[in-house]
Design brief:
Elements lengths: L1 H24 L5 H29 L5 H28 L24 E2 L2 E2 H23 L5 H24 L3 H5 L7 H19 L15 H20 L7 H29 L4 H15 L8 H25 L8 H19 L14 H33 L6 H6 L1 H6 L7
Helix pairs in contact: 2-3, 2-4, 2-8, 3-4, 3-5, 4-5, 4-7, 5-7, 5-13, 7-12, 7-13, 8-9, 8-10, 9-10, 9-11, 10-11, 10-12, 11-12, 12-13
């Protein structure tokens, strides 16, 4: 009998020990962190729908208001499905021998179950959070070709661009690729989102050509009320964008939220100050554009700088992006319709570079005493250059191929009539 009991205990121990070891190896779900990323995911989607959609819709002419809303909404739907099918796997899958450049696997979320974890949050939540970034980045590009691109071309370009441009760069920076291994500091998307979107937008603007009448004919926003409402939603949603990128409800998220807000406020005031001095009057368009510049520029630095860094980066964003906008439109005469490149592209590059500067403890950052600012600045510059080159070259190729195959631009008569009627047979306003 004693031998039987001993044998039973040994058998029970042999059964439970592997399960205990497996339980110890499996990360424990953190409820607070999970709840915060769920909220952040909703906030980032709120940035696109309705934030960015309304912001852009108010900036175009009334005959194109529905076309912009339709493009933002459709991109949100299309990118969600693409992210499930292939995007997430390319960005965050294990690429094996090619892992420095692209991920593989996890297509259709293969292998991701109910209990799959990413750190201490469910992988399904991480998937959703990253999906909102994959939605807003192609939507930002809409501002570069607004009022003149075929709807079919918008959808096709966005599909190819997500797969060939966004997903690989996302993998380079956040998915275990070569820029992350190099030590690039990009907390929430200076390279992955803002430089990417800005470069693609100006390439699209150049390939399509200027809108009919640009720059001679004035093309003011048709409804600044819509744009201010959308911009206000962007400001609120950006807290999920930056503070959510901490992937935890902790002090890092708190500081990221703080510097995000300070930079947005400083960017707004700096832009308005430039405008007031140069043109004699501050504009509503200027204050909301300065806010977006401040938000975009602080994005890569948000988890790496303190309040002083947030303030100075915001001021730099307002000034630099203001003059970049003037240069692109007035000197180069490139019709980046809604200023995506000077605000997001230039702002993203500026913020990525300044991250190396304001990370230093002497400037309020959290760096250790042995921090080498010069070396980190060079790494940041490599990240900026690599993103510009990959995005610029691939975006140009995609656009030229699509132009040859299906055509990118509506006809001159259709552009005059407006894309609301031409593409969707609807009017934004019945007055």
């Amino acid at each position: 009998m004693k031998h039987l009991r001993l044998y039973s205990l040994i058998l029970l121990a042999g059964t439970l020990f592997p399960a205990i070891c497996l339980a110890q190896d499996t990360p424990e779900l953190n409820g607070a962190n999970t709840a915060w990323i769920l909220v952040s995911t909703a906030l980032v989607l709120f940035m696109t729908l309705p934030g960015l959609a309304l912001f852009y819709a108010g900036l175009v002419r009334s005959k194109n208001v529905l076309s912009v809303l339709m493009q933002c909404f459709s991109i949100a739907c299309l990118m969600s499905i693409l992210w499930l099918v292939v995007g997430y796997g390319l960005a965050f899958g294990d690429g094996g021998a090619m892992n420095q450049f692209v991920g593989m696997g996890k297509f259709f979320l293969d292998g991701v179950g109910w209990d799959s974890m990413s750190g201490d949050i469910p992988e399904s939540v991480f998937f959703m959070f990253q999906m909102t970034f994959a939605i807003i980045t192609p939507a930002l590009i809409v501002g570069g070709f607004a009022e003149r691109m075929k709807f079919s071309a918008v959808l096709t370009f966005s599909t190819l661009w997500l797969v060939l441009v966004y997903a690989p760069i996302c993998h380079w920076v956040w998915g275990g690729g070569w820029l992350g291994d190099l030590g690039l500091m990009d907390f929430a998307g200076g390279t992955v989102v803002h430089i990417n979107a800005g470069v693609a937008a100006i390439v699209a603007a150049i390939v399509l050509g200027n809108r009919k009448g640009f720059p001679g004919s004035p093309m003011p926003p048709h409804n600044m009320t819509l744009s201010v409402a959308g911009a206000s939603m962007l400001w609120v949603g950006w807290f999920g964008f930056n503070a959510g990128s901490a992937l935890a409800a902790d002090g890092n998220a708190g500081m990221a939220m703080l510097v995000t807000h300070i930079s947005a406020a400083a960017g707004s005031l700096a832009w308005v100050a430039c405008e007031w001095i140069k043109h004699g009057k501050p504009s509503v368009l200027g204050i909301v554009t300065g806010m977006v510049a401040g938000l975009g520029t602080i994005t890569p630095a948000s988890g790496f700088v303190g309040p002083l860094g947030g303030l100075l980066i915001g001021i730099a964003a307002g000034v630099v992006c203001y003059f970049a906008t003037q240069y692109i439109k007035r000197v180069l005469k490139i019709d980046d319709s809604l200023d995506v490149f000077p605000v997001h592209g230039v702002g993203g590059a500026l913020g990525t570079l300044l991250t190396a500067v304001f990370f230093a403890s002497s400037l309020g950052g959290p760096a250790d005493a042995g921090y080498a600012m010069g070396s980190q600045f060079m790494i940041q510059a490599i990240g900026v250059i690599a993103t510009v080159l990959w995005c610029g070259i691939l975006s140009f190729i995609i656009l030229k191929v699509l132009d040859a195959v299906m055509g990118l631009r509506v006809t001159a008569d259709e552009e005059t009539e407006g894309l609301d009627l031409v593409s969707h047979d609807e009017r934004g306003y019945s007055l």
